[in-house]
Amino acid sequence: MAQRYVRIQTHQGQVYYGQLCLNRDVKILDAPAWLGGQVTEMVVAPDDYRILPPCSPSKVVAVGRNYVDHVKELGNELPQEPLLFLKPPTTIIAHEQEIVYPLQSSQVDFEGELALIIGDRTHHCSEEEADAKIWGYTIANDVTARDLQKKDSQWTRAKGFDTFCPLGPWIVRELSAEAKLQTYLNDAREPRQSASVQNMVFSQAQLVAYISQIMTLLPGDVILTGTPAGVGAVKVGDRIRIEIEGIGQLENTVTTAKV
After folding, report:
1. Distance in angstroms (rounded) separating the CA atoms of residues 248 and 51
2. Could you give the 3-state DSSP secondary structure of residue 92?
3. Dihedral, 117, 140, 196, 181 alpha carbons, nearest 10
4. Helix, strand or coil for residue 150?
5. CA 83 – CA 87 distance, rounded (Å)
6. 26, 249, 24, 246: which is closest to 136 by C-alpha?
7. Bridging pattern class, strands 108-110 and 232-234
8. What is the spatial distance between Cα 218 and Cα 128, in angstroms, rounded to a whole number?
9. High-pLDDT (> 70) share of the chain, %
10. Secondary structure of the chain: what % helix, strand, coil (to 5)?
C-alpha cells in the first residue's frame, strides 16, 4: 500500500502532519512532507487524534468542464482552454465532516474529483516541468449550489459556501494514470459517477502549466481537476462517498444549515 500522508489534530488541540501506519498510528513529521518534513520519534495513537484536511492551502484552483461526458450532460460546449475558478480555503472540510446545505439554495450537487497537491513554488512552468510540481494526490468533492450557478453570472457564490470542498482523507505520492473515480450516494451499490481519470480533456500537466501562467502556485496549494458525468442533487441526510483507486475514499454527510 502506498504511503499515506495525513494532517491531524490531537485531543489536546495540537495540529501535526504525519505518516499514517497500517494500524492507524501516525508518525509525526517535523514539517509538511512537501516542505521536506522528516519523521520524528513522536507517534500518536488512533484514539488520540482526529483527521483534518490533509493540507492547508493558500488557494484551491478548480477546473470546470474537464470531462467530455460531463460537458455533454450539462449541455455545454467543450472548452478550448481550461475553465478556471477559485474556491475559498474556508470551503475545505475533512473526511466525515458535515456538508452544510445553505438556506439560499434549493439544489446542491455533488461532484467527485481528483485533487492535485502542489509541492513546489510554481510560476510560468512548462508542461514538461509540471509533473515534477505535483507532489501528491487526494480526493475532493466540488460541492455546488447548481441553481445559484445557473442564476449568477459567475460561480463564486455557488461554489464558495463554507463546507463546499470536502478534501482527503490523506495524500498519496503516486497514482495510476488509469485510476477509476467513483461516487456513491447513501447505500446504493451502483455508483452515480464512474470514470477513469485519464479521460480528462486537459491533462494534469496541462492544467498545472496553464494555471502557473496566470497565478503562482505555492506548496500545499490544491488543484481540483474536474468531475466526470453523473453529478446529481443531494438532500439533507444524504451520505456521499467518493472513491479513487490507489487513494481510498472520502465520505461526508449533508446536514441542514443552522439559522
Report:
1. 14
2. strand
3. 130
4. helix
5. 13
6. 246
7. antiparallel
8. 18
9. 100
10. 15, 40, 40
C-alpha cell at 137: 494526490
Cell of 216: 503562482
Calpha distance 36→110 (Å, rounded): 34
CA 171, 18, 56 angle in degrees (round to 5)?
A: 60
CB contact set of 57 (below 8 Å; sequence gap of 6+): 89, 92, 218, 220, 221, 222
Confirm if 222 and 55 have CB atoms less than 8 A apart: yes
Tell me the three cell numbers of residue 94: 475533512
Neighbour count for residue 177 (Cβ, 10 Å): 9
Q: Which domains does the chain have, with CATH numbers?
A: 4-51 (2.30.30), 60-256 (3.90.850.10)
Per-residue pLDDT tens over the stretch 229-249: 999 999 999 999 999 999 999
Burial 60-73 (b: 16+ CB within 10 A, else e): bbbbbbbbeebbee
Backbone φ and ψ of 195, nearest 5°:
-160, 155
Query: What is the 8-class DSSP label of residue 190?
Result: S
Count other Cβ atoms within 10 Å, centred on residue 90: 13
Q: In the structure grid, which three cell numbers stand for residue 160, read together? A: 464558495
* Predicted confidence (pLDDT) per residue in 46-84, tens digit: 999 999 999 999 999 999 999 988 878 877 778 899 999
Answering whether pTM is above 0.70, one says: yes
Selection from 223, 171, 170, 228 nearest residue 196 by Cα: 228
Neighbours of 105 (CB within 10 A): 19
Residue 16 DSSP symbol: E
